[in-house]
Amino acid sequence: MTLRILIAYALIILVHTARADVVLLKNGNRLEGEVVAQDENSVTVRLENSEVSLRREDIKQIIEQDTPRDLYRTMLRGLNEDDAEGHYQIALYCAKEKLDDEAVALLRRALELKPGYPQAMKKLREIQAPAAAKLFERARKLAAEGKTSKALADYALLAEEYPESPLAPEAKAATAELHFAQLNYHAAMTQWKDILEKDRQNTRAFLGAVRICERVGQFDKAIEILDCVLRYETAEQIRNQCRGKRAAIAQIVKAGQAIDKAPDAPDNYALIARQFEKLGHMRTAAKWMEDAVERGSRDLQIVETLARHCDEDFRVTKAFEYWTYLKTLGPDAKLTRIANTRIKQLAVLKLIPEYIQCRSAQ
User: Fold this and answer.
1) From CA 362, how far away is CA 355, in angstroms rounded?
2) Adjacent-strand bridge partners of 35
């Protein structure tokens, strides 16, 4: 009989014979659990979901028996260190007896000995699922409440404590997006790279990296990443998204080269602005729009978009200037009416700082 069969046989016997300690009280009550600590004055008993401390004087008798942890240690003594199946079988027993830390350690060792061991990975994820889900939900709520530091700490804890959980890459992705929102691009890129080290076809991570490249001006790298995604991605919606991004970035590169040759030509600035707008980087787009207008652009769409952006950004003086400029370009009647309305409203808002600084009580 092989050692593996002996371990499996021992497990069957131990699972059916394992019982808890029995504590008989003088009042006739009976507790079944695990005696985890005792001295001359008290005895601590671990029950299924709690621990209770009893006075020694209230106890009639303690019947100590093998606990699940005792049986686990017995199994370990007969286990070959290189036996992946043996580690897995003992892990199943530990999981059944709620010895989750021991089960996780055994399953990880089984996966080291037998990489890709499907049953071990499935059981490991099953054990980790409740705690990982609870931690992920807490982090998500903290992020929604604007408590970014605490959310990042919980996401990091999840990735560290439950790396095999399907929520681990989700935690890393959420961490990357939080860093990106805070303009911490280096930290965000680190998270995306960590995900890609384990999953070389994680489109979400690739596109997250592309967004960072767009922000920091690494356009060649962005195109390289998009080409990589297009080589393996089959979902047509994602492929169309990647093609659109690639085309916009290529236009930015081309217009940038044209600006190097003719730095005062406004159309190239306007072209770059439109591409950044397509990519969803409105603040960057607005900067290029301002550059285009400063160089004499008479593009109605650019000026109107810039005026509305300044409105939304509460840049009163700038918005007033752009609406006024738009009116001078002679747009259609509808746009002229909108410009006139905004000019009147903004003219009042421009006076607010003067009122605040005025010494007159009236």
Assistant:
1) 10
2) 45
Residue 93 and residue 15 in contact, taking contact as beta carbons nearer than 8 Å: yes
Amino acid making up residue 344: K
Q: Tokens representing 35?
A: 């005696």
Q: What is the pLDDT of residue 358?
A: 58
Q: What are phi and psi of 29, to 5 degrees?
A: -75, 160
CB 342 within 8 A of CB 323: yes
Quote the Cα angle for 241-246-247, to 5°: 100
The amino acid sitting at 352 is I
Tokens of 192: 């995306």
SS3 343: helix
| pLDDT of 353 | 66
Q: Classify burial at 326, counting beta carbons within 10 Å of its beta carbon; exposed 0-12, middle 13-18, buried 19 or more.
A: buried
Whose structure tokens read 């072209």? 271
Distance CA 221, CA 239 (A): 18
Token pair in block for residue 206: 């690739």
Instruction: Say whether 361 sits in a helix, a strand or coil.
Output: coil
* Cβ contacts of 62 within 8 Å, gap of 6 or more: 21, 22, 23, 24, 35, 38, 43
Cβ–Cβ < 8 Å for 222, 192: no
The rounded distance, in Å, linking the Cα atoms of 285 and 271 is 10
Q: Residue 319 corresponds to which tokens in the numbers above?
A: 């918005």
* CA-to-CA dists, residue 281 to 80, 212, 227, 272, angstroms: 58, 11, 21, 11
Q: Which pLDDT belongs to residue 247?
A: 96
The model carries a pTM of: 0.70
Task: Return the pLDDT at 31.
Answer: 85
Per-residue model confidence (pLDDT) at position 1: 37
pLDDT along the chain (362 residues), means of 10: 48 51 84 85 86 90 76 84 91 89 93 93 93 95 95 95 91 96 95 94 96 94 96 95 96 95 94 94 94 94 93 88 92 89 87 62 54
Nearest to 132 by CA among 190, 79, 174, 187: 174
